Amino acid sequence: MKKINILFVYLIHGLGGENKDFVNVKVKLEGTFDKLFKDDENDREVKNIIACYCSSANSGMKSTFPLEIMFENDFKEYTKYFENNLIKTIRREKDKYNKNNDIECDIYISFSGHSLGGNVARGTITRLYRPYIKNEKNYDNFFEYIKKEYSFITNVIPCSYLSLSSPHLGSLVSEPNETSKFIKRTEKKVVKAFCNLAIGDVGKELTFQDSKVKSKASNDSIHNDKSSKYSLINCCSKESMEALSKFPNRTLTAFLRYDLQVKYCSAMGCIETPLPSILKNEKEILVKDSENDTRIVMYSGYEEGSELEYYQKELFNEKISKNFYYNNTKVVASPDIDDQIKKAIINNKEKINTVSENSSSNNKISEEDTKNYEEMEDEFLIDNDNQTEIPVALIKLFNQISYRRISLDFVVPYGLLRMLTHGLCLDVDFILARRACIKMMAKKTKLFYSHLIIADFIRTSKQTDDYSLLYLLN
Fold it and tell me: Which of 211, 251, 287, 418 has the fewest CB atoms below 10 angstroms from its CB?
């Protein structure tokens, strides 16, 4: 029986953005995919095609709405495009490939979100796997409706979730320490003013000021879960994380430094950044401050054995990721989130007055001291680089499931351009980003994002014996 595999990639821009922000990534992804699968002619048993869509549901000022409203907007756009456009494209390809009905059609769905788009993608995924009602009929979820309504669709298979510098743990800047008091105090005031005045309701949610949010979605309750007063915690409900866990390839990426908009720990869903240790002991694995360049510094979360071996062959090597991956790029263990929380609580003398004398010597704290991590939504911890404050409950709940994590370094000239590090990886076209060195760096990042999504697709669709990104080198 012949078969069609469709990779459908949904790309979501960040705060204040629009669908054109992802256009250059989309073009690179589609071009790389088509080049790899160019030999999929009609006489082959399996045909692979790609469809990419750049979301516009929350463009411009709509991206300042509360998260629940943005989730609903994107869900409506996603389902509308899926049924009205993608299904028609697949039907057309199916008829061209084999007019008979004796053919399988599998859709592999992937999401990539930049900045706030990574948060919106998670909320959209939650809604896609909620019970769905259409024409007064009940379905387990939207995709079950699709399979029953369009019988030529064999299956809809979750593939990739990729976030690019997304504020999963919010944007609340920590109190200043002694060594950076003036700078941190200024940054805290600027961020708070920006979030309150410039970016509206979502800014208040990102800084845990939800009580000031006036507009709410009509269906913002979390199904079968105790709701928190913080939207970011509700985004990590059991229902939401179970929906996200359906995607076998969950990857978080972040810049180790110079990302003013989204701090490393928030994007990585953790409370410890390796940057202080790297600057002290392994500075050679970072890009030199005098250079304009970008690279992979370290990665984690790939299971030892066939999974790690596959990605080291397809992604983490000097051939596929040329001048982006180097032989001193580190593969490290996934963060021990519980241990990070315990250490932070112990060190956070101002938040928790005392740790018992017996426990302080062996770096442990009792259950009575910590309560239940998942209930500690008003207990804020400061990350080890003294950048952000994060509720214990949010750290714990976000890490109910595992992730792959990729740490990047991205160094551009001093001044205004360095302040724009957060968005330069997408190759967005604006005057300051047209410099040759920036274009060179953006070329590396967008190619890497494309390779990552395609590698996930090849492995998830069980085509590793037939296709490899190494073919692109020939």
Answer: 211
- Structural domains in the chain (count): 1
pTM listed for this prediction: 0.92
Span 190-213, mean pLDDT? 82
Q: How far is residue 238's CA from residue 364's CA, in Å, rounded to a whole number?
A: 27
Share of the chain above pLDDT 90, in %: 69
Task: Determine the 3-state secondary structure of 113 from DSSP.
Answer: strand
How far is it, in rounded angstroms, from Cα 300 to Cα 304? 10
Q: Residue 248's domain spans which residues? A: 1-171+235-337+401-474
Residue at 100 is within a domain: yes
On whether residue 195 sits in a domain, the answer given is no
Six-digit token pair at 455?
A: 């590698």
Pair of tokens at residue 444 = 């590396």
Residue 148 lies in a domain: yes
| Distance (Å) of CA 406 to CA 29, 203, 403 | 19, 26, 10
326 assigned to some structural domain:
yes
Q: What is the largest CA-CA distance in the chain?
A: 75
Query: Which pLDDT score, from 0 to 100, does residue 214 have?
Result: 77
243 closest CA partner among 147, 344, 111:
111
Model confidence over 409-464: pLDDT tens digits? 999 887 778 888 898 888 877 766 678 888 899 999 999 999 999 999 999 999 99
CA separation for the pair 156, 348 (Å, rounded): 46
